[in-house]
Amino acid sequence: MKLNGISDNAGASPSRKRVGRGIGSGMGKTGGRGVKGQKSRSGVSINGFEGGQMPIYRRLPKRGFSNAQFKNDFNEVSIARLEQAVEAKRLDPKKTVDAAALVEAGVIRRERDGVRVLGGNEAKSKFTLEVAGASKSAIAAVEKAGGSVKVSAPAKEEPSDA
Prior knowledge:
Blueprint: H1 56-59, E1 75-78, H2 79-87, E2 96-97, H3 99-105, E3 115-118, E4 128-131, E5 133-134, H4 136-144, E6 148-151
Parallel strand pairs: 1-3, 2-4, 3-5, 4-6
C-alpha cells in the first residue's frame, strides 16, 4: 500500500450545499430558508423570546441552589457488571472488591468519589464489597448469595478558604 493510493470511501465526505446559487441548483432564491420572516434573515435571536411578553423563565420564582461543594460523583456499577467481570476472569470474588480492584479489573476507568453498587440482578458470586454506597436491592442480592457489603461514606477534602 502506498500513501498516495489511500482514499476515503465513496460518499464519506459529501461536498457542502452551495445555497443561493440560482434556481437550477434547487437551493436558489430563498436558499432553503422558506419565505420571509425573522428566521429567513441573518442575526436571528429568538430562543426564549415571547413577543415582548415577560418570558416564562423570568415569570417563575427561583428558589434555592445546588452547592457543588457537597456533590458526590460516584461510579455506578451494577451487580450484572460485576458478574460479567467475574465470568471474564478479570475480577476475583474471593478477594475484597473495592474501587481499586474495579479499576484494575477494567470495570471502571477511575475511582472518582467512590463506587455505588446498583441491584436489578441476582448475584451468583459470593462478593465481599467495600464501596461508598449501595442500593437496598444490591445489598439484598449480595447477602442472599452469601456475600457481604460494607458501605463507607467517601472521604471528602475540606474546602480551604484561601
